[in-house]
């Protein structure tokens, strides 16, 4: 991928305002993930409730497997493609970005994230040119909302713990007594000097106090010298007179330092937060699993049931479109042998003139097959597929998709909406309408989001290999 499209950790802060503006201005955002692994029969083993090989799993069972995958593994790479309409050029303008997602958490947050992967996934990514060095050296940080809450709880507990007394090991008594003697002598001479300070060091000059020893000195000051405070440094422990205003400033500075680190660690989550805040339409390809990973990675723990997951997606996101579902319902009279594979869709519709959609990356050739399975490239192909498919299906006609087969009350309501929208659809315009629109490219756009077209085709995700075959949001 073009280097300007790879967003690196060191550039994220400066690029963030522009990225957020692109999201705000976008008609929709397409996305794609590359995972560190997925749960399957070969790495899951025997477990209660395992789906028998003699039948397809239900959607609920598939959700439980996807949930297990998203909770165990992580996203290695994220692709986002923003798409906006340019009325001056009568075309869609896309900007795609590729993010290596670093699993590393800032050490000052005292949270060590578990990183799991499968050998099959690592081999697959290596075969497709994934740069594992970039993952750690240039990968952008992220922090889910639940992880952030957990980190704040860790901080609160650590601060509470520091105020509690700890056991004093007998072998540390000489160190404490030596420190006490040094402090007494220093304080006797400097008790009237608010700017005075004392640097304590261990007996041997080439040693430093360990964490336990520093904690003991803090404890001694708190109990025996309430008029003094201590500060830990790399090579020494500093004692100063307690000045309340100065201590308040220090506490404020520590809090601000913590907030700055948390804000930096949020990283790529800020983009997802903005998409959620604005309820921007998002587009994926075969994206049921992607949504599970997205929720787990940026929001928090996945709910226990598919129905609760559906409710959360409805609450937190705008319209969600699956280009695989669209491709499976294109007019098969015209495309009887068309594949719904993303790469083949990109090739199939690459020659379709309208609507025009251009990628602003200069001369880089994004049609190169060598870029398949790179998240930014696949996000671009997903955006392109959405524009071409939706336009063709809206103006030239499409198959009528089968009704959802899920039986939950929420899906029953959606089914009624879909049936009413299908009944109200205008007659097929045919390819002649598309030819006519070539004379007026300003009108060659996908149907607006309030259109009945999206009632029929939006919020419906293809889930291959399940009994229901579709997840309806």
From TrEMBL:
Domain of life (superkingdom): Eukaryota
GO MF annotations in UniProt: 3'-5'-RNA exonuclease activity; RNA binding
One Pfam family this sequence matches: CAF1
GO cellular component: nucleus
InterPro entries, per database record: CAF1_poly(A)_ribonucleases, RNase_CAF1, RNaseH-like_sf, RNaseH_sf
Region forming the signal peptide: none
GO BP terms, alphabetized: nuclear-transcribed mRNA poly(A) tail shortening; priRNA 3'-end processing; siRNA 3'-end processing
Family of this protein: Belongs to the CAF1 family.
Protein name: Uncharacterized protein
